[in-house]
Amino acid sequence: MHAYRSHTCADLTAANDGETVRLAGWVHRVRDHGGVLFIDLRDHYGMTQVLADPDSPVFSEVEKVRSEWCIRIDGTVKKRASDLVNPKIPTGEIEVFIRDLEVLGAAEELPLMVFGDQEYPEETRLRYRYLDLRREAMQANMKLRSDVVASIRQRMWDIGFREYQTPIITASSPEGARDFLVPSRLHPGKFYALPQAPQIFKQLLMVSGFDKYFQIAPCFRDEDPRADRAPTDFYQLDIEMSFVEQEDVFQTIQPVVQGIFEEFGAGHEVDSVWPRIPYREAMLWYGTDKPDLRNPIKMQVVSDHFRGGGFAIFAKLLEHMGTEIRAIPAPGGGSRKFCDRMNAYAQKEGLPGMGYIFWREAEGGGMEAAGPLAKNIGPERTEAIRLQLGLGKGDAAFFLGGRPESFEGVAGRARVLIGKELGLTRLNRFAFAWIVDFPMYERDPETGAVDFSHNPFSMPQGGLEALDGDPLEVLGYQYDLTCNGYELVSGAIRNHKPEIMHRAFEVAGYPSDEVETRFPGLSTAFRFGAPPHGGCAAGIDRMVMLLADEANIREVILFPMNQRAEDLMMAAPSEPSSEQLRELSLRVLPRDA
After folding, report:
1. pLDDT in tens, 39-92
2. Residue 162 bridge partners (DSSP)
3. Termini Cα distance of the chain
4. How far, in Å, CA of 61 to CA of 75, rounded?
5. Which of 419, 441, 445, 460 might form a disulfide with 471, Cβ 3.0–4.6 angstroms?
6. How many CA atoms lie within 13 A of 567 on its CB side?
7. CA angle centred on 493, ends 492 and 494, rounded to 5°
8. The whole model's pTM is what?
9. What separation in angstroms does the CA of 49 have from each of 31, 72, 116?
10. Which residues pair with 476 in a beta bridge?
């Protein structure tokens, strides 16, 4: 017999009745039923109930066993009586009578329990991650992640892509986040960088003639952590293709992503029609470029109904250029209590408040508009607003005004909250949308300088001629795929022509010599017959987070950092030794130096 096990803890069934077997695993739970000791023995595959009665030759040894001890047992399989079968586990038809026991690894008092659903502080869970990962939910999440990655790989191979590995130690690149720098021992004072993405290398692969590339790529960005973003590293499905337009990329990636969500979505509805929403319309309708389309609410501009009207605050706002009034329809939200609650929400978010109108049964029959705004602007204007928004009795609308950038974020979050509170958001569904036509450039509100707003390597729509006009009107062949309020995929058709690339960077304030210095490989390669190419990257961590129905991305990463980008288990980051610093020609300065 094998030294540790003849079967896993998920293998045994009634067909094994009477067999002598060997199992190994962790003691999940110990129960004493009238002198008979029951142990739920757990391994990676499942659970088996083993037991020892006073007749067992190792009963006294079994009495010493505690939770999370790692043990090996030999025993005899016995079929359970029909009324004792446990249908919740595959091994529920049998139990194993222990005849021999070996303690493979005893456990001290546990800082967190593996058995049960008790909540522990995140600091405890991350410091003892190896114990946290033994828990059933975490095991399921990590199995899901592994299965998703395997399925992605197979799907990419099936449609003619090959996987290639790009360098991990490379040069700094402008991906919109801070680099992790790596000092060079051989070149004192110079630094490598961990790649924020394989962006330049995958484009060079297209210039090299490889045509279709993919990689399950590790990416490194020194970012502030969020619930849906790791602060140090993450993995993405990285894709690039030659001789393609935007539509070709969409047609390639949709079956892959949709297939993954259908395969692992636990029966949730998966949308097969993915609308294309221009960036500016997404910001207008949803207040975000990552809309949750499970919520049907669309915001609308209603400025004309307030111009010169009786509500002085909005009327005066509209006298200034670039201002507008937007409405958030709220079907079913027509009560003063709900409206007051949403107004308080806006105040909590830092706005003066959120105006509202709600429509209710009139005293003499029919319908009337109520609320402070309704009294100020009168019945004719409130009726026009109701008709524009398609609302009726028992409904409400909320209003925000000013420059869109000052209230869009709050409006978008309010839309999400209204949809949830009123039961309008369809749960158990994955709703996708392509966000397209991103602006190439944006203006810094403080300095007034123009810079790239998205991927700097994207092809501007209209080519070279488009770059001679107002830069804020230039759109790029850039696109994001969103799902349930999260960005899953980001990509672009690349700017592969040297003259357009240099001009695009020049508009953003980067002269040609700086482009040559910062991107020598790419800039030079494009002079030697670069094909049109494009691609995208899909965040694997975020996909698995959605599929696992988790709100925090750390729940689907094996060994994540905490909110302060610290690895509590490995004590990283740590201070280097003096010898290491000397070898790298480095000196650490105090923070206030």
Report:
1. 999 999 999 999 999 999 999 999 999 999 999 999 999 999 999 999 999 999
2. 213
3. 66
4. 14
5. 441
6. 13
7. 100
8. 0.93
9. 11, 13, 17
10. 460
